[in-house]
Structure formats: structure tokens, C-alpha cells
Amino acid sequence: MSKYEKMSAGAEPFNIKEVLTQGEELLWSGRPKKSAFIINKTVTMLPIAIVWLALDLSFIIPIFSAGLFGQTWFFMIPFFAIHLMPVWIWLGNVLTAKKKWDRTQYAVTDRRIIIQTGLWGMNYESIFYKDISNVQLRVGLIDRLLKVGDIYFQIAKGGTQSFLDVENVYELYPKLQKTVMDIQTDIEYPNDLRPLENRGYRTKYKG
């Protein structure tokens, strides 16, 4: 646990303590960097939205110029409302980014990884160490500029979960890798990571 103490300072969990099981110990908790989270939500799909909007405007403007829109409004309005769906999706991501950030929280415990997300409600995803097949770090161009990164957890049975836009990611990533490796090894081959008086499963992790 000591390896996380410095990084956890001041990172009070947002509702995550409510879902910890009896005896479960919180090793680290954090949230995405607010500015990076909102900027990435804004940039995601932006090029597609711009191109899509430009293409649709190339049809809409000539129709208006020719005075044909009034004759075909009952067809044109529903058509372009649906056809502009990528633009509405991008706009929805931008408008809800702050709300999503408010409800996003990450935690590492001695038993699992917890990801809290939500928009209107609250969702909690648990990733147990035995189910993780790989831990990956991705730092894109915008991430480098904003000094954040994304940590992805590949699940052995399929699927991926992630910590997005995390600060101090180069410190957190190796610690997470070590914790996953330690606990997976200890489940398979009980070792001295846990108390000497009761080695193996169901005892405390002492990384």
C-alpha cells in the first residue's frame, strides 16, 4: 500500500467508498484532469463532424438558393436531421462533458479496480485482478500537451476498460502493473507479499 500513499494524497474518492466491501482497502483514487477530459471530449469526432456538416451544407445551401426548400420541407427537414447525426453526437459529447467529468472516478483497492462513470445515474465497473490480461499506457499528442495519459485494462475474457486523462500517469502505470502482477502471482502461487502467519488467498496485499 505504501507505494500509493504519496499519489493518493488529497484524492478523496467521490462516492467510491460506498461500494467498498468489508475489509477492502483503498490503495489509490483519482479523477481525470478536468481540462484534459473536456478538451478530449470536444476534439473526439470533431473532424468527422466538420466534414459531415460541410457536406450537408453543400446540399442545403443550393436548395435554399434555388427556393426549393419551401416545396420540399416535409422531406428535407427529417432527412437532414437524421443525416446530421454525427454532428449531434459530437455536440452531445461537448455539452455533457462537464457532467460526465463530475461523475467519473477511478480507484485501486487490494481486491480490484473500480471505475465510476455516469451521466444521469451512477455506474460502477469492477475489474478483478485475476481477470486482467494486460495493462497498457497510451499517451497521444493532446495528452502530451496536457500532461496526462490513458491506462487501458484488457480483460482476459474480452473487452477493455480504462482510466482516461490521468495525471502522473508515468508514476501510476508501473505501480498498477506491479500490483496486478503481484496479486495474480499470489493467487496462483502464494508468496511473501502477504502476512507470514497466513500466506495466500484472502489475506492482505502488502506491496
Write up this protein.
This protein is of the alpha+beta class. 46% of the residues lie in helices and 21% in strands. The strands form two sheets. Strands 1-2-3-4 form a four-stranded antiparallel beta sheet. Strands 5-6-7 form a three-stranded antiparallel beta sheet. The chain is elongated.
Properties at a glance:
207 residues; alpha+beta; four-stranded antiparallel sheet; three-stranded antiparallel sheet; 7 helices; 21% strand
What share of residues is helical? 40-55%
- The share of residues in extended strands comes to 15-25%
Report the biggest beta sheet as strand number plus sense, adding barrel if it closes.
4 strands, antiparallel
The total strand number stands at 7
Give the overall average pLDDT.
Answer: 81
User: What's the helix count?
Assistant: 7
Envelope shape: elongated
Low-confidence segments, ≥5 residues, pLDDT <50? none
Radius of gyration over all CA atoms, rounded = 23 Å
Structural class: alpha+beta
Strand order of the largest sheet: 1-2-3-4
How far apart are the first and last residues' alpha carbons, in Å? 6 Å
Order of helices and strands: HEHHHHEEEEHEEH
